[in-house]
Amino acid sequence: MHLPALLLFLFTFHAFAADKIFRAGAAASNVTPWLGVSMPGGFTDRRATRIHDELYARCLVLDDGQTKLAIVVVDNCILPRDVLDRAKAMAQKTTGIPAAHMLVSATHTHSGPAAMDIAMCKADPEYQAFLARRIADGIQRAVANLAPAKIGWGFGELPSEVFNRRWHMKDGGINENPFGNKDDKVRMNPPRRSPLLDRPAGPTDTQVPVLSVLHADGRPLALHSNYSLHYVGGTGAGTISADYFGVFADRIQELLKADRQQPPFVGMLSNGTSGDINNINFQGVPAGRPLYGQINFVANKLADEVLRVQKKIKHHDWVALKAVQKDITLGVRRPQPDEVARAKQMLKDAKDPKRLTTFEVYAQETVNLAKHPPRIPVPVQALHIGSLRICAIPCEPFAEVGLALKDRRKDTFVIGLANGYYGYLPTARQLALGGYETWRSSWSFLEVDSAKRVINTLEKLME
Question: What contacts 87, CB < 8 A, 6 or more positions away?
Fold first, then answer.
């Protein structure tokens, strides 16, 4: 390189380095539904009759000067890809952020409105359109709040509130499954303190990642944490609630003394790899708390651990950002002709087609899956925030999936139920054990080696 060209290059490089400014913006967009909407999370069509607390799409946008990323956590059970693709397209049009740079996940509250059809629940198309619009609005509002910021991350532990819900049982502890046999080796949510309990079928992920964002003057701007806990529950019948995810957002704001800021602080809690994890100590005595009591207990305990971690985080004035996303084609576990025939007969014999029993719901799922394409595209994504990696999986991954990814790379955590919904994601070992999470349905249908392929793909994307 000639001397004049070299001098020009050095001048340009140093000018860019000196001008690098990291910015962040956050906003919370209300997505509370109207009463009467269907509520998923069970095998019946529950209807919302009350609102206990408001639901939000909590949005965080990061900007390193060249690349923008958006992280959104929505108070909902499961979010279909088509609704999220609509939201991302609208947000891309108004903000310029590429859709592939947006990570949108559901918390998995079981006391929210249906955003997609599942079991006996039907999503209201009007609510789906409203939800997409409000997610897009939240991202746009977060961009409008972009300001110079600092960012950092750390990791804590909270082992006391996560339990594997799949158990090996002693003789007599396995019930007949919806397909007419007792081939399962494990049982989901067995009776507490049952003498037939043997041992949990898998591990838990006890890690508590914390992504902390501060204004340039040191005030809290936003905080995103993640915990591999399915949900807590203990809400009123027919009642809309964000579960412990919403309580955590309020509590961490209080602990950080970030109330009544302008623009408002945004606390966020996403779901990790909790497909086989819940908040029930099957060998312990229930605490006997009132409605919402356990939700508050867990949220406050988690917020205390997050605050402890946040106080030790080293915040950076600038880090590089990157997003990579890829669709991988996965096979579908479709039923055999004899299974379809059995299911059709069961549905023919059903006493009330509008109020199917659990086994009849699975018969309906069998008939529907027989019409399903043999292979489908599934999006996986990795966000790079400095040395931190955030992996996004559009499923309910088992704890083993998250642990495998964390074993392969330090400073990594996983957000489940992200960018769409494709059912449970058990490892091949867990799939062979059977149990509720593996029973073939629209919430468990991916081929046997899917978890391995997702892990391998994310490992490459993290590079």
Answer: 104, 131, 132, 133, 135, 136, 139
Residues 284-313, mean pLDDT to the nearest whole number: 97
Q: Rounded distance, CA 80 to CA 84, Å?
A: 7
Look-up of token digits 């605050």: 307
> 196 with 146: CB under 8 angstroms?
no
- Within 13 Å of residue 42, how many CA atoms lie on the same side as its CB? 16
pTM over 0.70: yes
pLDDT grade, residue 432 (50/70/90)? very high
Instruction: Write the Ramachandran bin of 435: left for phi over 0, alpha for psi from -120 to 50, otherwise beta.
Output: left
Q: What is the pLDDT of residues 230-243, one digit of tens each?
A: 999 999 999 999 99
Tokens of 272: 């990790």
Determine the Cα–Cα distance for residues 86 and 136; give it in Å rounded to an integer.
9
Q: What digits encode the pLDDT tens for the residues 187-211?
A: 999 999 999 999 999 999 999 999 9
Cα angle 12, 16, 19 (rounded to 5 degrees) comes to 140
Separation between Cα atoms, residue 94 and residue 334, nearest integer Å: 41
List Cα–Cα distances, 243 to 33, 188, 281, 392, in angstroms: 15, 21, 19, 22
Residues contacting residue 403 through CB under 8 Å, at least 6 positions apart: 203, 205, 273
- Is the per-residue pLDDT at 13 higher than 70? no
